Amino acid sequence: QVQLVESGGGLVQAGGSLTLSCAASGRTLGSYAMGWFRQAPGKEREFVAAKNWSGGSTYYAASVKGRFTISRDSAETTVYLQMNSLKPEDTAVYYCAAVRVSASFSYRRETEYDYWGQGTQVTVSS
């Protein structure tokens, strides 16, 4: 069992930066792929970024590519989402998720993930 807790959300002006953290308890994340998703008011939850550290593949939604970076600490207990050049349309609740690595996964679909955090609010003002 993996428990995930996000933090780092807040209010930021457009063009600013935030770093979200996703701390795992219960086990380290060495054998897990991690994803970030977000849900804006009135919209469905959407994929943001994911990384399979075992295979080395990293995935980003087109809307955030070049602005967001997913990373992990050396202890394999915390995953980060560095968000730069934030836009008002990035406003959403951000969730991290974990799943054991599998060759059959795209890591872009929320249904592939087994564990979820509670979410952290990011608000970007114009």
Keywords:
51% strand, 4-stranded antiparallel β-sheet, globular, mainly beta, 126 residues, 7-stranded mixed β-sheet
Helix content: under 10%
Number of E strands: 11
Q: Tell me the distance between the termini.
A: 40 Å
Average pLDDT confidence is: 94
- How would you sum up the global shape? globular
The helix tally amounts to 0
Give me the secondary-structure category: mainly beta
Alpha carbon gyration radius: 14 Å
**Sequence of secondary-structure elements:** EEEEEEEEEEE
**Content of β-strand:** over 45%
Q: Strand count, sense and closure of the main sheet?
A: 7 strands, mixed
Unreliable residue runs: none
In short:
The chain is an all-beta fold. The protein has strands at residues 3-7, 10-13, 18-25, 32-39, 46-52, 57-60, 68-72, 78-83, 92-100, 115-116, 120-125.
3D architecture notes:
By secondary structure, the protein is mainly beta. It is 0% helix and 51% strand. The protein is built from no helices and 11 strands. The chain has strands at 3-7, 10-13, 18-25, 32-39, 46-52, 57-60, 68-72, 78-83, 92-100, 115-116, 120-125. It is globular and about 40 Å long. It starts with a strand and ends with a strand. The mean pLDDT is 94.
